[in-house]
Design goal:
single chain; alpha/beta; Rossmann fold; 10-stranded mixed sheet; two-stranded antiparallel sheet; globular
Length: 535
């Protein structure tokens, strides 16, 4: 069986997804097999081009006055006191935020963090700025903010500037570059590895590529760094306190911000939680269990469709799915129209199935794609789903550095905590189908990582003294299991838990009025939802 490399099993990206999109965008989304928020939002957004807009001579929008330097941060005064030079750039206004590469050396090298502001429609009734992060790690906040109409409620959109930023190392903000496009195909298992190349060697090649190609930035992209950047952004936006929407990994970013700056927490919503006290083992086991639960829900839907390729009861479908994933390399399933992938590989099958689990609206497409592969011997649709997950086109070109940044950030935040044999046993017990798949590789990328652990490692974050923080969990969320939201809400001193009994990844703006109304009221009026509210 072809080994899929360093990241395919250890880390599964966690994103929040805008799913309320107009019919025209829905048709594009289905035709392109796009379940991932990052790819979907990129399709909706025209992006930022600061240089192009200056050349075109567009009129800059007014700058905002920075709040000032917090007590104890005098060494960072020039960053906290900077004024943002906003320039019109299509979906909104773009700017660059200057931050230190290394906060231990504030007078040293600096980098620029790319921003997008989509101004409030009601300027007179404007409340302030709402900073958003879609997750990942590695998701573009610029692209996410460009979809402002779909990621927040209509009244919130009226009264807030929606502000997204590409975290350091991501997309437009000093992006981490670890591998060529063809090397990424190899790492993800889209193409077959050369004979004799082991998982550990693949992991070492990728880690070495990050050190060689990315340079110093690869050692300074931890979540702690990004949270510090967010506080400088808060000041530059003229906000005494930060109002924030974090989805998936964005909940971890929000929690780390609250840990460092509890007195600067404004109206915080953390949707689809990634608790900071999870070890890398906990994440692997938890995600395997989450995808197992979601897969069983999909299996029931697959049976109801009458087109299920694996059987007529849930257990049979799960067994058939496991057999398919295990034997896909030997099945020689052709893929049409792809520059480098001629047959469906283990990585293509794995990521193709995983991608559709993020959104129950994609289940019917997954059912069709699996029927294509199993019954009609055509892996094109399943590879298309995998491509959408990885931000990859059929030409073999990756549009961003999502998965490279994902690895770089994760490996600075956490490392593997125990023997792989223990991990495999835990995962298999929690998830009979997905557990063995998530723990299949012999090599772990983070063991090979050439940079020091700087993200603080697993720890409990209480954020004592912060304003109420609303944590939202979905009961059958595949990527961030519901138990994680319970865990984060419990450990935060001011945590308030809101639950959605439903499917898919994250809850806010995903077709549930009860959830949307509660979060909108919190942002608009400051009304804290009842702790334990279930929708």
């Amino acid at each position: 069986m072809n080994r899929t490399g360093a990241r395919v099993r250890r880390w599964v990206s966690v994103f929040g997804m805008p799913t309320h999109i107009p019919s025209s965008a829905s048709r594009v989304r289905r035709a392109a097999a796009v379940p991932s928020s990052v790819v979907l939002v990129a399709a909706l957004a025209s992006g930022c081009s600061d240089v192009a807009d200056r050349v075109l001579g567009r009129t800059p929008t007014p700058t905002t006055e920075p709040v000032g330097v917090p007590q104890g941060q005098e060494a960072l005064a020039r960053f906290y006191e900077q004024q943002l030079d906003w320039v019109n750039c299509g979906p909104g206004d773009c700017a660059e935020l200057e931050v230190p590469l290394d906060y231990a050396e504030p007078d040293g090298e600096t980098i620029e963090v790319s921003l997008l502001r989509v101004p409030a429609r009601d300027s007179r009734g404007r409340i302030g700025s709402l900073v958003v992060n879609p997750g990942g790690p590695g998701g573009s906040g610029v692209d996410y903010a460009a979809a402002a109409d779909f990621i927040v409620g209509s009244e919130v959109r009226q009264r807030y500037d929606i502000v997204g930023f590409d975290p350091r190392g991501v997309a437009r903000s000093a992006p981490v570059d670890c591998a060529s496009d063809e090397e990424m195909d190899l790492q993800l298992g889209f193409i077959e590895a050369p004979d004799g190349l082991t998982d550990a060697e693949l992991a070492a090649e990728f880690a070495q590529g990050c050190e060689t190609n990315a340079g110093a930035i690869a050692g300074h992209v931890s979540t702690v760094h990004a949270a510090k950047d967010m506080d400088i952004l808060r000041s530059a936006l003229g906000e005494e306190k930060l109002t924030f929407l974090g989805k998936s990994y964005g909940t971890y970013l929000g929690a780390v911000f609250a840990e460092q700056f509890p007195d600067r927490v404004g109206r915080f919503v953390l949707d689809g939680a990634l608790p900071p006290d999870l070890t890398s083992e906990d994440i692997t086991v938890g995600q395997a269990a989450g995808f197992e639960r979601a897969s069983r829900a999909w299996a029931a839907d697959c049976i109801d469709s009458g087109e299920c390729a694996f059987g007529d009861d849930v257990d049979s479908v799960m067994a058939g799915l496991a057999e398919f994933l295990d034997g896909v390399e030997e099945s020689s399933i052709p893929v049409q129209g792809d520059a480098r992938v001629s047959e469906l590989g283990e990585g293509g099958a794995f990521y193709g199935v995983i991608a559709a689990m993020y959104d129950q609206g994609m289940w019917s497409f997954l059912t069709e794609a699996l029927a294509d592969a199993v019954v009609r011997n055509d892996g094109t649709a399943l590879q298309g789903l995998a491509n959408s997950y990885a931000e990859r086109s059929p030409s073999g070109t990756y549009s961003g550095n999502l998965l490279e940044a994902n690895s770089a950030i994760n490996c600075l935040d956490r490392r593997l905590d125990g023997p792989p044999t223990d991990l495999r046993q835990r995962a298999a017990e929690a998830a009979p189908v997905w557990g063995p798949i998530f723990t299949e590789e012999e090599g772990d990328l983070c063991e090979e990582w050439p940079f020091d652990l700087v993200g603080g490692g697993p720890r409990t974050i209480a954020a004592e003294g912060s304003a109420p923080i609303v944590v939202v969990g979905t009961t059958r969320d595949p990527a961030t299991p519901y138990e994680w939201s319970e865990q984060l809400a419990e450990q935060l001193a001011s945590g308030v838990l809101v639950s959605l009994d439903g499917d898919g990844h994250t809850a806010y703006m995903r077709s549930n009025g009860c959830i949307d109304d509660a979060i909108d009221a919190f942002y608009l009026e400051g009304t804290v939802p009842e702790d334990g509210l279930t929708c």
